[in-house]
Design a protein that fits this description.
The complex is a heterodimer of chains A (about 220) and B (about 500). Chain A is α/β, with parallel strands linked by helices and about 220 residues long. Helix content of chain A is about 40%, strand content about 20%. Chain B is built from 9 helices and 15 strands. The chains are: A alpha/beta (about 220), B alpha+beta (about 500). The interface between A and B is medium-sized, with 29 and 29 residues.
């Protein structure tokens, strides 16, 4: 899952990026409104975390422009402004959620996860494909009765495929949702992660869940 | 007595009482005088009438009390006739004890009886002394021993010695040429009449007082009604509803200035509250963001085991953030202390050059990192009247800004000169300048030309407002000017 953080306090930006990346998110950052708008328009972010008082273009203007362009990215406002009228204005301008500083990182994570569920139209935080079960809150994966340990990128890949289970997902889509723009990973690496994931999930004797669609991409399917 | 209504009523009633009392007094005195006048003229008339009927035959006085028509005149007074030696010639019978006035000394005695009744003139007797008409009557009020008050009239008349004297049982000696005719009447009736008048006036006055008192109570209430209305209108204005104003329409013209003043005061109050709210919101924002950064850094750190390098880096990050919070908090505390009127400048004459050199030395390393030259043009003997630590803080903040917003290889220059009863200090930079529309507001708290709070520019957002506060505490002025080649902040500190 790929996020954008628009925040001008570098210390906060740095710790947010670090914390979210450790939760296997791909994180892009912007320190002012213009850069934030540029990135938001250029990439299909799953969630944008947006500060309001930022240089060059304030957060609400950015939000308005993003919505005017018809982008449906889920946007969470993260600001020190805690007045009810600010919250109303923020949500009514097109934000999907509003969190005030200072905040608990756990809460921010939970809200980001909730926005992701909303985006992929999943009510259940446990994603179930056949006998594979993914707990998106705890980041644990179980197949049958066997717990599977995954590396963060492997988990991110599996969660993305599970969110879109039954659909063919192209390599570039996977790439776009797993890596931030600074990563110079090539899409070949995705094949590597897919094969690693297969080894852990589709063990010999089990029915394979991850299928390769030649020339199109990959498919996670129950039956 | 702190009630306006009570004051109005009492004041009105005091005036009313004075008016009523003087009116009563006037009526009472006028009526008394009128009654006395009537009494006096009656007394005098009676005395004249009696005098005309007096016939002194051979030194014996006698009254002819029956007039030509056979009628007795109505005489209610007592009469006495006395000669200049105090000899009582005649006194009314049954006369009570009256302290008669003495025979008037130096009384003007007419040489001749001035008038004469026809009747006495035509009297046949040759042997008579006749009392003729009076001259200059004197009225007097006397008090008898039994505290009875009498009104007397005394006048002197010439006696015509007509004829034979030497009568044996003459009452009057031959030598008597003039007698005093005195008449007295009790004032009891007059007094009674006046007492009745007084009672009547008292009753009427009391009634007027009560009616006017009630009226003034209502009138005062009516006059004060707009105050109650203004009060009611003001009651609707609270801290959260400061935008309300009193509409002068529907109020009397006299109250319009008051209402305008009240509305103007409300305007100022509202602006003050707005500033205060904005300031509080700004301050909380400025503090919450770095606080969020520190908390988040620690929270993320604690989610899993960390390498030493990560821990050290996080500590550095938090230290830097905490320092920026410290700068804001110290700035806020200083401003609050100065707002509260504490932190009075302890002024003394200090040489400016060493102070500037000190500030440059402290800020130097930072400036060198951005390659900004620090320059000054200050006479070594120039002295400034200021609080040394406050002036140091103000100049440090200005130099700090000048360095921070400078361009690479730019410079900061401090110039100073004595002029206009004080010292002018200019801090100039070669930076990006300040757009004209921002110039009037840069001394406001947390005001930023660019609302960025990145550490690239840093600062607490309070530096210039602290400068202004310090300069104002010194009764000085601070202004800013900006152009394409940089900005200049000018501080003027008066010598007194």
């Amino acid at each position: 899952m790929r996020l954008l953080i628009v925040e001008d306090n570098r210390a906060l930006l740095k710790s947010l990026k670090k914390g979210l990346e450790e939760e296997s998110f791909a994180v892009d950052t912007a320190e002012d409104g213009e850069e934030g708008l540029f990135l938001a328009e250029a990439n299909d972010y799953d969630v944008v975390i947006l500060d309001l008082m930022i240089p060059k273009m304030d957060g609400l203007t950015l939000l308005r422009k993003v919505r005017a362009k018809g982008l449906s990215t889920h946007i969470l406002i993260l600001t020190a402004r805690d007045a009810p009228e600010d919250k109303v204005r923020g949500l009514d301008t097109g934000a999907d959620d509003y969190l005030t500083k200072p905040f608990r990182f756990e809460e921010l994570l939970a809200r980001v996860r909730a926005l992701l569920r909303r985006k992929y139209q999943a009510k259940n935080p446990r994603l179930i494909v056949a006998d594979l079960e993914i707990d998106t809150a705890a980041h644990t994966v179980v197949r049958g009765s066997l717990a599977i340990i995954l590396q963060p990128k492997e988990y991110a890949l599996l969660e993305y495929l599970a969110h879109r289970s039954g659909e063919i997902v192209s390599r570039s889509e996977i790439w776009e949702h797993l890596y931030d723009w600074q990563d110079d990973t090539t899409s070949n690496l995705i094949d590597v992660f897919i094969s690693r994931l297969r080894k852990k999930i589709d063990r010999p004797g089990l029915r394979p869940l991850i299928q390769t669609v030649r020339g199109a991409g990959y498919l996670l399917k129950g039956e | 007595m702190r009630s306006l209504r009570l004051k109005l009523i009492v004041g009105f009633l005091l005036v009313l009482t004075a008016v009523i009392l003087s009116f009563d007094g006037f009526i009472f005195v006028a009526k008394g005088n009128a009654l006395l006048d009537i009494l006096d003229s009656r007394l005098f008339a009676e005395s004249q009438s009696l005098a005309r009927r007096l016939e002194i035959t051979n030194g014996k006085p006698a009254f002819d009390l029956v007039d030509d028509n056979g009628l007795k005149p109505a005489i209610s007074s007592f009469i006495r006739i006395v000669d200049e030696n105090g000899l009582i010639v005649h006194q009314s019978p049954n006369s009570p004890e009256i302290p008669w006035p003495a025979f008037p000394k130096n009384a003007a005695v007419p040489h001749q009886a001035t008038a004469r009744l026809d009747r006495t003139q035509s009297a046949q007797s040759d042997h008579q002394r006749k009392v003729a008409s009076p001259a200059s009557p004197v009225w007097k009020t006397v008090r008898s021993s039994r505290s009875k008050i009498w009104r007397t009239v005394t006048w002197v008349d010439h006696l015509e010695i007509d004829a034979v004297s030497g009568e044996k049982n003459a009452v009057l000696p031959e030598t008597t040429t003039a007698v005093a005719i005195q008449c007295a009447e009790s004032l009891a009736e007059t007094k009674e009449e006046l007492r009745e008048l007084a009672s009547l006036l008292a009753v009427l006055s009391l009634a007027a007082f009560l009616i006017a008192g009630g009226g003034s109570f209502l009138l005062a209430g009516w006059a004060l009604r707009p105050i109650r209305r203004i009060n009611k209108a003001l009651a609707g204005v609270s801290e959260t509803r400061l935008d309300r104003r009193i509409d002068p329409k529907g109020f009397d013209r006299e109250l319009h200035p008051l209402i305008e003043q009240l509305n103007a005061a409300l305007d100022r109050l509202e602006k003050g509250f707005q500033r205060e709210r904005q300031f509080t919101a700004d301050a909380s924002h400025e503090l919450r963001t770095p606080l969020a950064a520190i908390l988040n850094t620690i929270e993320v750190l604690l989610r899993r085991p960390r390498r030493d390098q990560e821990l050290i880096e996080a500590h550095h990050d938090n230290l830097r953030t905490a320092r920026s919070m410290q700068a804001i908090i110290e700035g806020l505390l200083l401003l609050a202390r100065m707002d509260a009127g504490k932190a009075h400048p302890a002024k003394e004459e200090i040489p400016l050059l060493p102070l500037v050199t000190d500030i440059y030395a402290a800020i130097g390393p930072e400036a060198e990192a951005g390659t900004v030259r620090l320059e000054q043009a200050i006479e070594p003997e120039l002295r400034v009247l200021a609080d040394p630590s406050q002036l140091r803080l103000a100049l440090s903040n200005l130099v700090d800004n000048a360095v921070r917003y400078n361009r690479p290889n730019g410079s900061v220059t401090i110039k100073a000169r004595t002029e206009g009863g004080g010292t002018t200090i200019e801090v100039g930079d070669t930076g990006i300048g300040i757009p004209a529309e921002h110039l009037p507001r840069i001394f406001e708290r947390f005001y930023r030309v660019d609302p960025s709070r990145t550490e690239a520019t840093g600062g607490s957002g309070l530096g210039l407002s602290i400068v202004r506060k310090i300069v104002e505490a010194h009764n000085g002025r601070v202004t800013a000017a900006s152009g394409p080649e940089g900005s200049v902040v000018t501080v003027f500190l008066p010598d007194a």
